[in-house]
Design brief:
Elements (H helix, E strand, L loop, with lengths): L1 E7 L3 E8 L7 E9 L14 H20 L4 E6 L1 H4 L4 H12 L4 E2 L2 H16 L6 E6 L4 E6 L6 E5 L3 H8 L7 H23 L6 E5 L1 H9 L14 E3 H13 L2 H5 L12 H14 L4 E4 L4 H11 L5
Length: about 300
């Protein structure tokens, strides 16, 4: 069947259309993406303002039309931290339902981590052993660990690259004192959770998903995205530690000129790099591998698991 996944994230609203059936890997057929940066549109009360809601409704309608045009039999709509944590989430969900007919499933942070972990497990397989997963989104950081298809432990922290940039790093380039303050904040938040994971023992394989990790690995020398999904892409802590101060000293335009860095995400990269560096350091990770599958694929795989075999 042809499935659509409508992902209302903290940075983008992304429709992914795939051809899929139980027991087979989902094959991408179409992608439609719009950058809204909802995590950066929250007002002082934590609400998504009228303009942001209007843009969200319009973008969801565009995604639904694209899914229909591509022949999707079913669309799986979900939202993550920006909507989840908005103080007016009920109003936003009601507007979306009334004006698009879509009932957005708002994932908890733990659900987000668990489904992303499922995607990584299916990608790397059982031979990867115990997996530690790191995922940096626009609004949150997800961490998960386990031996099976669903993790033994999964947490979500409010350490997304968009959220932290908006709150902590207003300058371009950011003020060095702001960078230092954010570094302390990030490490203190992550350190609170480390003990919950280390009691399970050392992971056999550490993997990372998300645009932030893909961009960081690319500027550190990993293969370009157009070279395909099956080329191994790694990021070492040593390389990341060298790049963090460089990224913080650059302007958004300078970062946007780096290989693999998208113009729309360039302003968030210093915050994302600080989170990645802090997580790798505090969890004792010398090197990780970037996984091409993430939350959207996890949603698809869970849906396929409930379909009868062909």
């Amino acid at each position: 069947m042809r499935l659509g996944v409508l992902d209302v994230g903290s940075n983008t609203v992304h429709l992914l259309v795939v051809d899929a059936h139980p027991g087979a890997r989902p094959l991408p057929a179409h992608s439609h993406k719009a950058e809204l940066r909802l995590a950066e549109l929250l007002d002082e009360q934590g609400a998504i303002g009228p303009e942001g809601v209007d843009r969200l409704v319009a973008t969801i309608n565009e995604g639904l039309q694209a899914a229909e045009d591509k022949g999707a039999e079913e669309v799986l709509p979900f939202a993550t931290s920006a909507v989840r944590e908005a103080s007016n989430a009920d109003h936003v969900l009601a507007r979306v339902h009334d004006e698009t007919g879509v009932d957005l499933q708002v994932l908890t942070g733990e659900e987000e981590a668990r489904l992303t972990f499922l995607a990584a497990r299916r990608w790397f397989g059982w031979s990867a052993g115990k997996l530690l997963l790191l995922d940096i989104g626009g609004g949150s950081l997800e961490i998960a660990y386990g031996m099976d298809e669903y993790p033994d432990k999964a947490v979500s922290l409010p350490l997304g690259a968009g959220r932290l940039t908006h709150t902590w790093l207003p300058g371009d380039p950011p003020d060095p004192l702001d960078v230092k303050a954010l570094r302390r904040h990030v490490r203190a938040q992550i350190a609170r959770t480390v003990g919950e994971f280390t009691r399970f023992g050392k992971p056999d394989h550490v993997v990372a998903t998300s645009k932030t990790f893909k961009q960081l690995s690319r500027i550190a020398g990993a293969a370009r995205s157009n070279e395909g999904l099956y080329i191994q892409r790694r990021l070492s802590r040593k390389s990341l530690e060298e790049w963090v101060p460089k990224l913080a000293a650059m302007t958004t335009a300078e970062r946007g000129a780096l290989p693999g860095v998208s113009e729309g995400r360039a302003h968030q990269l210093p915050a994302g790099a600080l989170v990645a560096e802090g997580a790798m350091d505090l969890f004792g990770v010398e090197e990780l591998e970037v996984c091409p599958w993430a939350l959207r694929e996890g949603i698809i795989l869970r849906r396929l698991d409930h379909l009868p075999p062909r």
